[in-house]
Automatic annotation (TrEMBL):
Lineage, opening ranks: Bacteria, Pseudomonadati, Pseudomonadota, Gammaproteobacteria, Enterobacterales
Membrane topology: Multi-pass membrane protein
Record Gene3D superfamilies: MFS general substrate transporter like domains
This protein's UniProt keywords: Cell membrane, Membrane, Transmembrane, Transmembrane helix
Full protein name: Membrane protein
UniProt similarity note: Belongs to the major facilitator superfamily. Phthalate permease family.
A GO cellular component entry from the record: plasma membrane
Domain Major facilitator superfamily (MFS) profile: 14-429
Chief location of this protein within or outside the cell: membrane
Any one GO MF annotation of this record: transmembrane transporter activity
Pfam families per UniProt: MFS_1 (PF07690)
Membrane-crossing segments per the record: 12-32, 52-72, 79-98, 172-192, 244-264, 276-305, 317-334, 340-362, 374-397, 403-424
NCBIfam families: 2A0114
Length: 448
C-alpha cells in the first residue's frame, strides 16, 4: 500500500477490468443469437429447438447462482471470477464444433448448460467488487459501467461477429469469442486484486471508500471468520417484502435483456427480411441506445443521492421511468417500416438500460455479511427469465408463425416491473443478519 497525501484512484482501473470482464461475459452469451439464423438453417433446428438451446444457459445459470455466491464469499471475487472466465470461454469455443457430434442439438444444449454453470458467479462477483472498491455515491455509476456491457457486446460485436459469419462460417463466431475470453481471463488473474492487497492503492483512497459506505475489508481473513450464515438466514433474505419486489423487478428487466440476446437477430432476419450483414448492423443500434441509457441512469441516480435525496428515490426513480418507457417495444407490432421498428426497439432498449439499477439496489440493501450469497439469490430469481423468455418466445413463434405475441410478452414485462417497484418494494434499506434467524433493517447504514 502506498503512503502519500493525495488520494489514489485505483478503483477506476478495477472498474475497467470489471467492465471488460462483463463485456467478455456477454459476448459469449450473444454468440448463439448471432449464429442462430445461419446455424439453425444448416443443422435443421426449428424455432422450438432454438428456444430450448437458448434456454440451456439460463437453466444452469439460475441453478448455480447460490452455489456461486457461496464460492464468492469463501474464496473472493478475483479468484472465482477469473477461473470461471477461463472455463466458460472453453465451452464457448467448443460450441463451434457441435457439427462433429452425432447429435448436434444435444451437444449444443450440453455446452450451453456448462457455459451457464461457469458464468453463474460473474455478475454477483461484479456487484461484490463494486462494494469493495466504491463508496455509495459512486456505486450507481460503477454499476452502470459493468451493467452496460450487454449493450456494448450487442452494439460493437454483433456486427463484427456477423461479418465473421459472412466471411468464414458460424463456427468461427464461437472460436473467436472463446479465445478472447481465455486471454482476458489470464489478464484478470494476473492484475486484479482486492483493495487491501493492491500495491498501488494508498490509505487515503481506502479511507475514502470506507467512509463513503464501501467495504474494502470484504473478503479479508478477519471478516470471513465473523461470517456465520445459516440456511434460516438465507431463507429470510428471500422472504422480505422489499427483496421480493426487487426480485420481480429484476425478472422483468432480465426478460427484456434476453429477448435482445436471443431472438432479436432472428426477428430481424425472419420477420423483417434483413440479410445477415444488415442484421449485425441494425442490431447494433438499439444496443448503443441501451449503453447510453445505462450510463445516464446510473449517473442520474448518483447525482440525486449526492444532492441529498433519499436512497429510495435516487434508485427507484430511474428504474420506474425506464421500465415504463420500455413498454414502447409493443409499437413495433403496428408498423412495417424497418426504420420505425429500429427506433422503437432503440427507445425500449434505452429505457431498459436507463432503469437497469437492480444490481446497484442489491449492493445498497444486501446484508454486508453475505454479499456474494445475496447476489446469487438475487440473480437466481432474476434469471428465471433466462429460461422462460427464450422458451416462451420459441413456442409462440412455433405456434403462431409470428413474433407479434412475443413482442407483447416482452413489452408487458415493463408494466409488471413498475408495479413491483411502486407497490411492493417500499423503502430501500440495508438488511443485516443478526443473532436470530430473521434479518433486521439498519436505518443508519443508508442515506435517508
Amino acid at each position: 500500500m502506498k503512503n502519500s497525501g493525495k488520494k489514489t484512484n485505483v478503483r477506476y482501473l478495477m472498474l475497467v477490468f470489471m467492465g471488460v470482464a462483463m463485456l467478455v461475459n456477454f459476448i459469449d452469451r450473444a454468440t448463439l443469437s448471432v449464429a442462430a439464423p445461419v446455424m439453425s438453417k444448416e443443422l435443421g433446428f426449428n424455432a422450438a429447438d432454438m428456444g430450448w438451446a437458448f434456454s440451456a444457459f439460463g437453466w444452469a445459470y439460475m441453478l448455480c447462482q447460490i452455489p456461486g455466491g457461496i464460492l464468492l464469499d469463501k474464496f473472493g471475487s478475483r479468484l472465482v471470477y477469473g477461473l470461471a472466465m477461463l472455463v466458460w470461454s472453453v465451452f464457448t469455443f467448443l460450441q463451434g464444433s457441435i457439427y462433429l457430434f452425432s447429435s448436434a442439438f444435444i451437444t449444443l444444449f450440453i455446452f450451453r448448460f456448462l457455459m451457464g454453470m461457469a458464468e453463474a458467479p460473474a455478475t454477483p462477483a461484479s456487484s461484490r467488487l463494486s462494494v469493495q472498491w466504491f463508496p455509495d455515491n459512486e456505486r450507481g455509476f460503477a454499476t452502470s459501467i459493468y451493467q452496460t456491457a450487454p449493450y456494448v457486446a450487442l452494439g460493437v460485436f454483433t456486427p463484427v461477429l456477423s461479418y465473421v459469419i459472412s466471411i468464414f462460417s458460424w463456427h468461427y463466431v464461437f472460436y473467436s469469442a472463446g479465445l478472447l475470453g481465455i486471454i482476458f481471463g489470464a489478464f484478470w488473474l494476473t492484475f486484479v486484486r482486492d483493495p487491501l492487497k493492491h500495491k498501488s492503492i494508498n490509505k487515503e483512497e481506502l479511507d475514502y471508500i470506507r467512509d463513503g459506505g464501501g467495504i474494502p475489508e470484504l473478503g479479508s481473513a478477519a471478516r470471513k471468520s465473523q461470517q456465520t450464515i445459516t440456511w434460516a438466514q438465507v431463507k429470510s433474505m428471500c422472504a422480505t417484502r422489499m427483496m421480493i419486489g426487487v426480485y420481480i423487478g429484476q425478472f422483468c428487466l432480465t426478460s427484456i435483456t434476453w429477448f435482445f440476446f436471443t431472438w432479436f437477430p432472428t426477428y430481424l432476419y425472419q420477420e423483417k427480411g434483413l440479410s445477415i450483414i444488415k442484421v449485425g448492423l441494425v442490431a447494433a443500434i438499439p444496443a448503443i441506445a441501451g449503453f447510453v441509457g445505462g450510463i445516464i441512469g446510473g449517473m442520474l441516480s448518483d447525482y440525486l443521492l449526492r444532492k441529498g435525496y433519499s436512497l429510495t428515490l435516487s434508485r427507484k426513480l430511474p428504474i420506474v421511468l425506464g421500465m415504463l418507457l420500455s413498454c414502447s417495444i409493443i409499437v413495433a407490432n403496428y408498423t412495417q417500416s424497418v426504420p420505425v421498428v429500429i427506433f422503437v426497439m432503440s427507445l425500449a432498449f434505452f429505457a431498459k438500460g436507463f432503469g437497469n439499477l437492480g444490481w446497484c439496489v442489491l449492493s445498497d440493501t444486501s446484508p454486508k455479511e453475505a454479499l456474494g450469497l445475496a447476489g446469487g439469490i438475487f440473480n437466481t430469481f432474476g434469471n428465471v427469465a433466462g429460461i422462460l423468455t427464450p422458451l416462451v418466445i420459441g413456442f409462440i413463434i412455433q405456434a403462431t408463425g409470428s413474433f407479434d405475441w412475443a413482442i407483447i410478452y416482452v413489452g408487458s414485462m415493463g408494466i409488471i416491473g413498475v408495479i413491483a417497484y411502486l407497490f411492493i418494494v417500499g423503502k430501500l434499506e440495508r438488511m443485516t443478519l443478526g443473532a436470530t434467524t430473521s434479518p433486521q433493517v439498519s436505518s443508519t447504514a443508508v442515506h435517508n
